């Protein structure tokens, strides 16, 4: 062994193995990126497997409720714009109250103003990745009896349905008030000739 070779310690070996695993994991994620439909179908399959596990075992309702709340949170972040117009209105009102310039240029708000694309607070890729990770973690939690807390599950179902209805109503009202649609609906514009 020469003096210029690095010593091969167990720490360095573990670190190299972990780096190799991270590269392989990232490479796999990069390969899955363009396959949107297949990714979501796989996630829906995992969710169906999780629900089947919950129904057949008749337990782990707290884990199911936690997953449902987390997925609702992700959905809301997916539906909201990155630059929230209500926050911009609040900031402008605060600046005017503090004696700031009242002629501050604001983003276009009329139909005839310039085009502003919809930029999501949570991109589709992060929404999918977080949903899949949460579902896998929830599936692993159903293996342990520690997470099988006895609860009266109909209360959790009713509470989640009420929470879902109220938050979606508020989100839809926000979408109507600020006139944005978070989905590509309608005819796509084609440029550069007819094909």
Rounded mean pLDDT is 83
- What would you call the structural class? mainly alpha
Computed Rg: 24 Å
Number of helices: 6
Task: Write the H/E string, N to C.
Answer: HHHHHH
Spatial gap, N to C terminus? 67 Å
- Helicity level: 55-70%
Oligomeric state as shown: single chain
Largest sheet: none
Total beta-strand segments: 0
Strand content: under 5%
Low-confidence stretches: none
Description:
The protein has helices spanning 10-32, 36-57, 61-79, 85-97, 124-141, 153-177. By secondary structure, the protein is mainly alpha-helical. α2 packs parallel to α5 (124-141) and α3 packs parallel to α6. The longest helix has 25 residues, at 153-177. The model has no long low-confidence stretch (mean pLDDT 83).
In short:
By secondary structure, the protein is mainly alpha-helical. It has helices at residues 10-32, 36-57, 61-79, 85-97, 124-141, 153-177.
List keywords for this structure.
single chain, 195 residues, mainly alpha
Helices, strands, pairings?
Elements: H1 10-32, H2 36-57, H3 61-79, H4 85-97, H5 124-141, H6 153-177
């Amino acid at each position: 062994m020469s003096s210029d070779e690095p010593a091969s310690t167990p720490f360095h070996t573990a670190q190299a193995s972990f780096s190799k695993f991270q590269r392989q994991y990232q490479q796999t994620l990069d390969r899955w990126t363009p396959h949107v439909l297949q990714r979501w179908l796989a996630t829906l399959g995992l969710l169906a497997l999780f629900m089947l596990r919950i129904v057949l075992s008749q337990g782990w309702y707290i884990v199911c409720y936690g997953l449902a709340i987390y997925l609702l949170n992700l959905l809301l972040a997916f539906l909201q714009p990155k630059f929230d117009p209500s926050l911009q209105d609040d900031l402008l009102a605060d600046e005017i109250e503090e004696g700031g310039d009242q002629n501050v240029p604001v983003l276009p708000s009329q139909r005839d103003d310039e085009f502003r694309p919809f930029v999501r607070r949570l991109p589709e890729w992060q929404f999918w990745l977080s949903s899949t990770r949460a579902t896998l973690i929830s599936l692993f939690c159903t293996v342990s009896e520690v997470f099988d807390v006895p609860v009266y599950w109909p209360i959790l179902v009713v509470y989640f349905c009420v929470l879902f209805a109220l938050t979606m109503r508020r989100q839809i009202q926000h979408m109507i008030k600020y006139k944005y649609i978070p989905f590509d609906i309608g005819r796509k514009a084609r440029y550069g000739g007819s094909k």
